[in-house]
Amino acid sequence: MHPLWVRPYIEHALREDIGTGDVTTEAILPAGTPLVARLVAKQAGRIAGLPVAEEAFRLLDPAVRIERHVDEGSDVTAGTVLATVCGEGRAILSAERVALNLLQRLSGIATATRDVCRAVSGFPVRIADTRKTLPGLRVLDKYAVRVGGGVNHRFGLYDCVMIKDNHIAAAGSLARAVEAVRRRVGYWVKIEVEADTLEQVDEAVRLGVDIVLLDNMTPDEVAEAVRRVGGRAITEASGGITPENVRAYAATGVDVISLGWLTHSVRALDISLDVEPIR
Question: Is 215 a known active-site residue?
């Protein structure tokens, strides 16, 4: 993640939280008081977002010292100390919530992605995210998916054509939609078509699209769709796929399984910031 993408969001989050000042911390702790704190995982999982959390502390105290005890992307057990933070006490306490919110969210995404990737191990399928991310946090959410072992679907409306049911309805037919897209976009932009039926799969292949998204199909339907595509396009399964049935979908031979719940239904990993008592 390039700092130009990350820093503006963290700055906004800190302004939102601190406002005109941290009235609790400023009343309790004299300015310049040093503190030592530790980031501790309260449950097992995969850690993602340490650089983001560190940036939150540095924005309030450029001289803060942070020592990592685990690498980004590590799998940890409950009780693992992730990092030690030493610096100006007011800055550490005021940055705590923003740092933890982001670290917990990204680690939750990375952990869920890791678990799904493990569930489909042995099959040549990739686990991908979607655009169902928290507004403003897409770069971070998708980064966490990669840390978990997944791959990124398109980042936005600008980097891949994806013709969905409403586009087909607006154009009048799938063929018209594909034709309109080809007149407008360059040859380097891939075209994906969402197919709800096997008949739409057949039509998409005849039209020569690059990717066919098999939407809300059963594993048996996905297997038949993959057979019909016959390697002439990338196949992607999405919709109705859960941790319990994902392996059945992987067994169909589909190339990609995309899961919106990796980022839209995040279960944050429990991580705390524990300050050492002042002696």
Answer: yes
Q: Which of 38, 58, 68, 97 is catalytic?
A: 97
**Residue whose pair of structure tokens reads 């360059």 in the numeric block:** 186
Known active-site residue 164:
yes
List the structure tokens of 260: 């919106």
Report CA 127 to chain centroid distance, whole Å. Answer: 11
Is there a catalytic annotation at residue 194?
Answer: yes
Q: pLDDT tens digits for 228-266?
A: 999 999 999 999 999 999 999 999 999 999 999 999 999
b/e 147-178 (16+ beta carbons within 10 angstroms → b): bbbbeebbeeeeebbbbeeebbeebeebeebb
Residues 194, 162: Cα–Cα separation, whole Å: 7
- Selection from 126, 128, 186 nearest residue 152 by Cα: 128
List residues bridging with 258 in a β-sheet. Answer: 128, 238
Q: Which residue carries 């072992």 as its tokens?
A: 149
Backbone φ, ψ for residue 161 (5° rounding): -80, 130
Task: Say how far apart CA 177 and CA 167 lie, in whole Å.
Answer: 7
Domains parsed from the chain with CATH numbers: 3-117+266-275 (3.90.1170.20), 118-264 (3.20.20.70)
Please tell me which residue in 164, 190, 232, 247 is annotated as part of the active site. Answer: 164
Name the catalytic one among 7, 132, 146, 247: 132
Q: Which residues pair with 65 in a beta bridge?
A: 86
User: pTM here?
Assistant: 0.95
Going 71 to 75 to 80 to 82, the CA torsion angle's sign is positive
Considering the candidates 22, 129, 194, 236, report the single residue annotated as catalytic.
194
